[in-house]
Amino acid sequence: MRIAAVLALLVGCQVSPPPTPLPSLATARFATDFNTYRLQRVGLLPLTGANISTEQSQMLQAAFMVELSHAADVELVRLEAHDLEEVPGSEPYRRGRYLPRTILELAHRFQLDALLVGTVTHIQAFPPQALSISLDLVSCETGMVLWSSSVNLDAGDRDVHDSLAAWAALQRSSTGSRESLQLTLISPSRFARFAAYEVARRF
């Protein structure tokens, strides 16, 4: 009887396995020679976009720092706006290219092997939240894009809502937090973390 009671207690104390993430909502593309590059230090530039504020850019950059640090086997260096004041901007989505001078100056100053350049093409910070981001990994050696990813999220979409619910459950399981899905749906910082998580899964 005592053995049966102990076994029953042990079964009751078993921790439920963490929820299985749904397929990533982000897309990604690697350069054919990606594996030939030696990447150790990668700089993450402030995210830009026509309709985002400085605060939103900082929030998104912080989210990507956290999620990419978990996913990438490199040292990430967060570059602040003041780090770029004396460096000419590339504006790749307007010019269609990265200025070599920009890449070379940043690589020299911060001893970088590559740069992560993010652009926000759409953001809606009120429910239902929406966020569209493109992220490129640019080699400081050649100026070539080694990896690119994009994600388009609309919390009103069923697939996005389901993936967001699975992510929130995974966060509760791994961190022990009691954060609800409802809070995640209305919090811009949590939605940014979710977007960064989706992109980081494809890195």
Overall form:
globular
Tell me the CATH topology of the domain at 23-154 and 192-200.
Answer: Rossmann fold
Give the strand line-up of the largest sheet. Answer: 1-6-5-4-2-3
The span between the termini is 53 Å
Question: What does the average pLDDT come to?
Answer: 84
How is this structure best described in words?
- The protein has 7 helices and 6 strands, in the order H-E-E-H-E-H-H-E-E-E-H-H-H.
- Helix 2 (54-71) runs parallel beside helix 7 (188-200).
- The chain is globular, with a radius of gyration of 20 Å.
- It is an alpha/beta fold and 203 residues long.
Describe the structure using short key phrases.
single chain; 203 residues; alpha/beta; Rossmann fold; 6-stranded mixed sheet; 7 helices; globular; disordered N terminus
Task: Please specify the SSE layout and strand pairing.
Blueprint: H1 2-13, E1 27-30, E2 41-44, H2 54-71, E3 75-78, H3 92-95, H4 100-110, E4 114-124, E5 130-139, E6 145-154, H5 158-175, H6 181-186, H7 188-200
Parallel strand pairs: 2-3, 2-4
Antiparallel strand pairs: 1-6, 4-5, 5-6
Helix pairs in contact: 2-7
Give the structure's gist in a few sentences.
The chain is α/β, with parallel strands linked by helices. It is built from seven helices and six strands. The chain has a domain at 23-154 and 192-200: Rossmann fold (3-Layer(aba) Sandwich), CATH 3.40.50.
